[in-house]
Amino acid sequence: MKLWRSPRGTGDHPRSSTNGRSTEPSGFSLARLVEEAGDPHPLYARTVNPQFVRLLRTIGFDKRWTRAEGSYVEDADGTRYLDLLGGFGMFALGRNNPQVRAALEEALALDTPGSVQLGLSPLSGLLARELLARVPSRLGRVAFTSSGTEAVEAALKLGRAATGRSRVLSVEGAFHGLTLGSLSANGCEDFTEPFHPLLPGFDRVPFNDLRALERELAREDVALFLVEPVQGKGVVLPLPGYLEGAQELCRRYGTLFVVDEVQTGLGRTGKLFAFEHFGLEPDVVTISKALSGGYVPSGACVLRAEVFDSVFDSLEHAVRHGSTFAPNDLAMSAGLAVLHELDEHDLAARAKRLGDALLEATRPLVERYEVVRDVRGLGLMWAIEFGEPERGSRSWRVLERVQEGMFAQLVVGPLFHEHQMLTQVAGHRLNVLKILPPLTIAETDLARFAETLDDVVRRAQRIPRAAARMALRAGPRLVG
Ligand code: PLP
Question: Ligand 1, from 146, 182, 266, 288: best to mutate by most atoms within 8 Å of Cβ?
Fold first, then answer.
């Protein structure tokens, strides 16, 4: 069985071409290595993470994926799955987007002189200029990173140094990444619990509570307030006026207002940045996920020039913060192509249109099924929340005793196994199913998801014994 298709237009042994020169096959072939290895799960279990493989097997997600394009991934049997999870949001332009690939191929063919380290490639300045052209003018500098958590780390470090304060405030339920600084701002015990002690000076306030925020800010020792405009865990939307009020309070008490757009950014919510929905002008914005079209690790911390310059304030301090791979030419090339594609196809507007249609199609489920508490979203960041039926349900309680949030798994499972749709449970202990589909997804695919969901929820509501058994076996869930 062929696990990987041959690269387009070549045989099993790809010939590459650099600057018009063609290279003879070197005897190295990824396709052949993959083919010889066969099923990737035993090898991964032996060499990387056995428990993750156990989890995939338990919930039956241990497919042999062979190909991906646009909104679909294909398994070794040739079955296509609709990818509504979108790599946790990084495939905003669809998988293996040809325009982004073309930019990467062009960069490779040019033998670009990137990462000289004590020297510059033109590409980082070009991408920084494009990013700055798309955010409020008070933002004037870009610190590139290789991931979302690293963009948050940059915000934490530069924010502390620039203000001379050390406290960091974030909100309950927040997710900002899993390195130690970001983790210290994380509002989810399931992620933080085994890694204590976290960094000192980090505190959390309830989301959507301006009074609690003001109580902390009024001490005038908070360097930065870090907030996702829409919380990724659970897709929790801000109450009207909350983010605007938070920005106002930050200004009043000398705290930097940091908006984490790692998940919401680059068109996902129906605007290029979610903060635009609320007319905000943050001091710092973090970006990642969609920035390189899912091809290359990439991220950015965009901040006010005064903040950046107060840290990088002299010749000796010219390299106070950085990351070896961050402004690499492939990430920069992909980023330029992604911004071009977002503009060219007005994908933010498309996300709004499709997201509105999806909400309209799925909101009636709240009335239709007792077990559906809420359907919510902004653009193509969408979720359905389940709750115990008002009349009570014994099987619901049995399920939830095993693990809170188990019902959502009863919906994720059949969507995947019976309807070939990849979705996720949106966080530990949350009974929320979430999707982050490519912004390029076909309208008919989203409509099909809405119809299928209706059917699957109707059946799951009866909590059939077999499904409950599956859920009980599954235990942990995939969260992101
Ligand atoms: N911030 C937010 C809002 C996120 O959703 C995530 C990842 O899901 C991160 C930060 C961390 O990004 P990464 O996984 O690239 O480190």
Answer: 288
Which atom number of ligand 1 is nearest to the Cα of residue 299? Answer: 15
Site to probe by mutation for ligand 1, drawn from 144, 145, 149, 296 as the one with most ligand atoms within 8 Å of Cβ, is: 149
Residue pair 289/267 in contact (Cβ under 8 Å)? The answer is no
Q: Residue with the nearest Cα to atom 11 of ligand 1? A: 177
Ligand 1: atom nearest CA of 147 is 15
Span 242-257, pLDDT tens digits: 999 999 999 999 999 9
Query: Are residue 247 and residue 175 in the same domain, yes or no?
Result: yes
- Asked whether residue 119 falls in the same domain as residue 236, the answer is yes
Q: Which atom of ligand 1 is nearest to the CA of 88?
A: 8
Q: What is the pLDDT of residues 113-132, one digit of tens each?
A: 999 999 999 999 999 999 99
Q: Which atom of ligand 1 is nearest to the CA of 179?
A: 16
- Pick the atom of ligand 1 nearest to 228's CA: 3
Quote the tokens at residue 286.
């973090």
Taking the whole predicted model, whether its pTM rises above 0.90 is answered as yes
Domain assignment present for 78 = no
**Which residues contact ligand 1 via a Cβ below 6 A?**
88, 147-149, 152, 175-177, 228, 232, 260, 262-263, 288
Residue at a domain's end among 322, 344, 366: 344
- How remote is the CA of residue 149 from the centroid of ligand 1, in Å? 6
Q: pLDDT tens for residues 1-57?
A: 555 555 554 434 444 444 555 555 579 999 999 999 999 999 999 999 999 999 999
The per-residue pLDDT for 397 is: 79
Report how many domains make up the chain: 2
What's at 36, amino acid-wise? E
What CATH number corresponds to the domain at position 147?
3.40.640.10
Q: Which long-range contacts (CB under 8 A, 24 or more apart) does 27-31 make?
A: 30/4, 31/4, 31/5, 31/6, 31/7
Q: How far is CA 83 from CA 125, 421, 423, in A?
A: 34, 6, 7
Q: What DSSP string runs through 369-400? A: -TTEEEEEEETTEEEEEE---TT--HHHHHHH
Q: Clarify whether residues 133 and 266 are in a common domain.
A: yes
Six token digits for residue 316: 């000796």
Cis omega before residue 282 (within 30°)?
no
